[in-house]
């Protein structure tokens, strides 16, 4: 039996962790001479107080949903994929290749192609570390970190020498054709007040569909059962006939593909061209999102929304309270990551003891000494005749 209810694990513990992080953040803000209450009010109003703020909050959350799902899928196979930065960058390269290379008649067709190529390029970039893990025993953390830097260098080279517009000094590609531009929030939800400047676009719904895909994959398919079994115990999985190489490769390919799809939101939806450093740390934030969301799609969405609010609210905080610098906003974000990730047990262990203490004594005793549901028949040894053969 679990030590505490599922709802406490999924909702209560992350909520307590966030509250503790905000309390410590308020103390830091007070130490520099600013009002923590006013700072919190500015952040909440900046993230949720207007359609403009919602547009940016959901835009950031879309990025974090993709990268959070990518990390979550790898987590279920007990792999720590921290290569989301590089996989998303190469996914953006895939988007640029297909949208610049083909004249698309409508954004719906272009979107399908961008989804396929971003996922394909991201999965291909994750396939190399996956192969090294499965066949050579190279640790997935080390190889994915290395491939982040390789992807960044490769993208710089291609933007300067291949995709750069002739005569321009900016390391970016040309703009995609008008038919390939995704509808923004002002186009499909203008009645809600979203302005044209809000970067939220149709890829937000693609992220939600990706959540449904991951839920079905992990909890409703045989492959998902094999991934979870492998993650719980590789030895037991091998004994059951599950091929470790196959699971490692498939899990990392799916993970890399999801990270690569983040480029749809930024490259195709917001920038409408391939630019340098468009990932902006979303791959690393995805790790915290997956941890806080307990690697479940619903939890990932909620955690992504929180970090989207922190990003947008932090930007407004810098604007309205100049004494709070960008570095201070990063400190607040880091505290949330610290409490929801590294210090998770600081909240979890006391909560487990509390729920065990609140559990009825009879239930605890029954769990510790289960009563058989049917009587166990005594085992009678076989009778042997004097000649030594069984009767």
List the helices and strands and how they pair.
Blueprint: H1 6-31, H2 36-48, H3 51-76, H4 84-101, H5 107-136, H6 140-161, H7 185-188, H8 203-220, H9 222-232, H10 234-239, H11 244-260, H12 262-271, H13 282-292, H14 297-320, H15 326-342, H16 344-358, H17 361-368
Helix pairs in contact: 1-2, 1-15, 1-16, 2-3, 2-14, 3-8, 3-11, 3-12, 3-13, 3-14, 4-5, 4-6, 4-11, 4-12, 4-13, 5-6, 5-11, 5-12, 8-9, 8-14, 9-11, 13-14, 14-15
Describe this structure in words.
- The chain is mostly helical.
- The chain has a domain at 70-189 and 202-280 and 292-304.
- It is 71% helix and 0% strand.
- It is built from 17 helices and no strands.
- The longest helix has 30 residues, at 107-136.
- 42% of the residues are buried.
């Amino acid at each position: 039996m679990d030590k505490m209810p599922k709802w406490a694990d999924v909702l209560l513990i992350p909520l307590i962790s966030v509250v503790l992080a905000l309390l410590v953040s308020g103390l830091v803000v007070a130490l520099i001479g600013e009002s923590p209450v006013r700072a919190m009010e500015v952040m909440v109003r900046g993230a949720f107080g207007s359609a403009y703020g919602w547009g940016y909050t959901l835009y950031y959350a879309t990025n974090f949903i993709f990268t959070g799902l990518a990390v979550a899928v790898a987590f279920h196979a007990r792999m720590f994929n921290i290569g989301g930065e590089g996989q998303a960058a190469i996914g953006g390269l895939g988007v640029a290749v297909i949208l610049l290379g083909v004249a698309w008649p409508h954004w719906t067709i272009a979107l399908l192609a961008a989804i396929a190529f971003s996922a394909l390029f991201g999965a291909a970039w994750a396939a190399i570390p996956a192969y090294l893990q499965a066949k050579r025993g190279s640790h997935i953390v080390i190889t994915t970190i290395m491939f982040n830097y390789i992807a960044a260098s490769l993208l710089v080279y291609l933007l300067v020498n291949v995709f750069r517009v002739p005569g321009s000094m900016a390391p970016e590609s040309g703009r995609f054709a008008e038919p390939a531009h995704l509808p923004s929030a002002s186009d499909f939800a203008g009645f809600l007040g979203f302005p044209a400047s809000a970067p939220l676009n149709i890829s937000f719904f693609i992220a939600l569909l990706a959540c449904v895909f991951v839920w079905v994959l992990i909890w409703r398919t045989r492959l998902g059962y094999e991934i979870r079994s492998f993650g719980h115990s590789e030895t037991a999985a091998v004994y059951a006939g599950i091929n470790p190489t196959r699971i490692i490769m498939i899990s990392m390919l799916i993970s890399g593909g999801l990270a690569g799809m983040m480029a749809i939101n930024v490259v195709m939806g917001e920038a409408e061209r391939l630019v340098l450093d468009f990932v902006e740390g979303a791959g690393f934030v995805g790790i915290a999102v997956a941890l806080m969301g307990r690697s479940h799609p619903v939890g990932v969405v909620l955690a992504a929304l929180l970090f989207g609010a922190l990003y947008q609210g932090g930007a407004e905080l810098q604007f309205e309270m100049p004494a709070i610098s960008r570095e201070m906003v990063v400190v607040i974000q880091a505290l949330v990551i610290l409490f929801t990730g590294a210090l998770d047990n600081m909240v979890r262990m006391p909560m487990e003891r509390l729920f065990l203490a609140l559990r009825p004594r009879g239930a605890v005793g029954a769990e510790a000494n289960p009563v058989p549901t049917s009587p166990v028949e005594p085992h009678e040894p076989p009778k042997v005749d004097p000649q030594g053969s069984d009767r």
